[in-house]
Design goal:
six-stranded antiparallel sheet; 3 domains; 2-enoyl-CoA Hydratase, Chain A, domain 1; 21 strands; 17 helices; single chain; Pdz3 Domain
Length: 525
């Protein structure tokens, strides 16, 4: 049976920053409020104890509490959420920008843990592990033939800095088992995927999220690009769901002049906190372009809004997600956390870009998908903006609030990709898995090739497009790929480049036919 592709587009949405707001009893005297609140807490605690002590069957009361917390938060706003202990560990690592491990990118291929790529200069690379190796044992723990979930595999491979683990691997290219002793180390989780030079003295920096290390990564990339003589910069925030507001503010400061307003927040008491640029900006005169799409959210929107409202940057792409809520985290002893919405943020002109959420969380997140149905992703005229939420920048440019950042230069989805279902599929992990499996059949076919030789080989070989069609058909997806052959081949070639040569080579391929990039470069000619 074929899978209906109507809902295939995966709207990545924001990096859901999260929270809890307990309602106040505004009309009751202070003493009555105190008694009512404490009665509610006592009532909940007594109920949990009653269930724990008297219920006829054994019950995990922790799970009941978690459900209660989830239910409370779901009544507040879409970004106030509870994060269970297991998930919180990975969230913390992602936002911190590193973890302790052995430095491999892997996935379960059939019944084995297959290494897609080792982290450059990481513990595994230094020990001699290679792409295509299968990890059979971690110490004495058998990993193959068990189809272990990813979190279980991570727990086997992680540990303390300097701790040692022995891996038994099968190297297919040599048809033999090998043993490696590896010392775990700190592995960076990059939030800046690429910082590279494009044509016409234009630099390009891709930010995938705003973590603790994002500004330092960005500044390092910008410094190198300035040394190469860039006169303009493209900041790619597409599919960036946000993260730490402070990192976005620090990046905005690089482009704005001293004392220009970057962002301000307002809490429920009406208290306002304003953040201004300093005199430390290192790129205050060159041209700046910011790429956004329907999945750019939160901190991405703060950066885009700050540059747009100060007439400093040109925003290119499609209307952003529309998340203008600020969260604060509260940690619990069991390792879980709640992130609570504590304020709203506003762009320098006074815009709130938070889209409505009164119809509930399901409708809120579905709104991003609805843009496909209404035609907004194909035509700027289909973007719904309210005249009552119209603002003006210092130079008189009209900007809008009420639901995301509306770009200055619109680039429709159909121009960018040709077929939205295929486009969204190509941005999932399916291409990476396909390429790994093709390489696994015969890595020697690419041995010794320089990058340009690799490009010629891929251009003249139709094999991988045909193989990808078969691969997708086996998944049950009813997609017609022939009309988007050039697009599919570009993503396949880019993924081969990533796995064979490294991350920058992926972007070297993928950006050459990128509609938003070309819109900018062609306008500058």
């Amino acid at each position: 049976m074929k899978t209906n592709t109507k809902y295939l587009p995966i709207i990545i949405g924001s990096t859901l920053a999260l929270g809890i707001v307990l309602g106040s009893m505004m009309n009751a005297p202070v003493e009555d409020q105190f008694l009512a609140k404490n009665y509610s807490k006592t009532k909940l605690n007594k109920l949990i104890d009653f269930i724990n002590n008297e219920y006829v069957d054994s019950v995990n009361t922790d799970s009941i509490v978690n459900l209660t917390v989830d239910n409370i938060l779901s009544k507040l706003d879409p970004h106030s959420v509870y994060i269970p202990p297991a998930e919180q560990v990975s969230v913390v690592e992602s936002m911190r920008g590193d973890f302790v491990g052995i430095g491999i990118n892997f996935y379960m291929y059939k019944d084995s843990v297959a290494i897609i790529k080792t982290v450059e200069n990481g513990p595994s690379a230094k020990a001699g592990l290679k792409s295509g190796d299968r990890i059979l044992f971690a110490g004495k723990t058998k990993l193959y033939g068990r189809r272990l979930p990813s979190d279980s595999l991570f727990s086997k491979l992680k540990g303390k800095v300097g701790s040692e683990i022995e891996l038994t691997v099968f190297r297919k290219s040599e048809e033999k088992k090998l043993k490696f002793k590896i010392k775990r180390d700190v592995i960076p989780l990059k939030s800046v995927d690429a910082a590279m030079l494009l044509a016409n003295k234009t630099g390009y920096i891709k930010i995938n999220r705003f973590a603790e290390t994002t500004f330092s990564e960005f500044k390092s990339g910008l410094t190198k690009l300035k040394q190469k003589g860039i006169q303009s910069l493209i900041i790619d925030l597409r599919d960036n769901g946000g993260g730490y507001m402070e990192e976005a503010v620090a990046i905005a400061d690089e482009f704005l002049k001293d004392k220009q307003l970057i962002v301000f927040t307002k809490n429920k008491n009406g208290e306002t906190e304003k953040t201004y640029a300093t005199a430390k900006g290192s790129f205050e005169t060159g041209k700046v372009y910011v790429l956004i799409n329907e999945n750019s959210a939160s901190a991405s929107e703060i950066l885009a809004g700050a540059l747009q409202d100060n007439d400093r940057g040109t925003i290119v792409g499609r209307r952003s997600f529309g998340k203008g809520l600020v969260q604060r985290e509260m940690d619990f002893n069991d390792g879980s956390a709640v992130r609570l919405t504590v304020a709203r943020y506003y762009t320098p002109t006074g815009r709130s870009i938070q889209k409505p959420y009164k119809k509930g969380n399901e409708e809120y997140f579905k709104e991003s998908e609805d843009r496909l149905e209404t035609g907004e992703l194909y035509a700027k005229d289909s973007i719904k903006v309210a005249d009552s939420l119209k603002f003006k920048t210092p130079k008189g440019k009209v900007v809008y609030g009420g639901g995301g950042i509306v770009p200055d230069v619109f680039v429709p989805l159909q121009v960018e990709h040709g077929n939205e279902n295929v486009a969204y599929l190509l941005q999932t992990g399916v291409v990476g898995h396909f390429v790994f499996e093709e390489l696994d059949k015969n890595r020697n076919a690419f041995a010794g090739l320089h990058f340009n030789e690799f490009l010629v080989k891929m251009k003249n070989d139709d094999l991988y497009f045909k193989q990808f069609k078969k691969y997708i058909a086996l998944t049950g997806l009813d997609l017609k790929l022939d009309k988007t052959k050039a697009l599919v081949n570009r993503y396949i070639t880019a993924e081969f480049a990533r796995q064979l040569f490294g991350e920058l080579y992926y972007y070297d391929v993928i950006l050459k036919e990128d509609a938003m990039i070309n819109k900018i470069l062609n306008a500058k000619k």
